[in-house]
What does this fold into?
Amino acid sequence: MNALPERFEGEALSIDLHMHSTASDGALSPEALVEACASRGLTHMALTDHDTVAGVERASAVGESHGVVVLPGTELSCQWRGLNIHVVGLLPSGARGELVAGLEHQAEARERRAVQIAARMERVGLENALERAREQAGSDRPLGRPDFARALVAAELVPDMATAFRRHLGNGKAGDIKAHWPALSTVVAWVLDAGGVAALAHPLRYGLTRRKRGQLLDDFHAAGGQAVELVSGFQNPDATRDLARQLDERGLLASLGSDFHFPGGHLAPGSMTPVPRTAVAPVWTHSRLAATFGLPMPAA
It folds into this structure.
């Protein structure tokens, strides 16, 4: 197995630590996602479906036959100061401890939230919203906002998913229901109890000022969070460098991922803005992940 570099030097990397499959709201099965990663030359990936690890075992089995290291993971929804925030749990030992009960709580919360979202989408004209979202999901997994977005598009109430989120489902809109999610500190504790590494997902997407983003990073770090997605898909290079400075100031590690959901969009597995040369250490150098990624264990 090829080891990943111990620092960022601005080179292209064959790793993606944030992707989704049909176990949540992705379009590819866990097996097909791993095959897509292999075809694009990725050597390391994390399957991080929303509030579940249901697809990890299937992905790992296929990863072994394709020479792709599959790290178990999940993307957990939570609340911070009235905002819907996501934390990626990178789980070298899988789900265990408090996280097991936490994932059950999240699944139940998603079911309750879906009923509320459906009622609100019916008010904007989406008849039988719950059933239509379920049709888009194509399975009995817990529904998410993207399922309702696709239902709005299919009903021709909006032209595309981006508009669905901008008008009805994004942060602060009618379909953005946060009441069921636990606090940021709670989900970080679940990940740590499972022996994992907690990485704050896509911090540049929350619409925060630099000062408020710093407050989020401070609270995340104080809760025990260890890493932040320095790169999530495609983003402004200047914003990436500024975020790197904020991570360096707090001693946080840098993760990266495409947040891939479906083929045919602007993202593909492993596609993202290059990581700039930075003093911030990669997340895979953390003592909990080093062995998984072929690095020597850090000295005690």
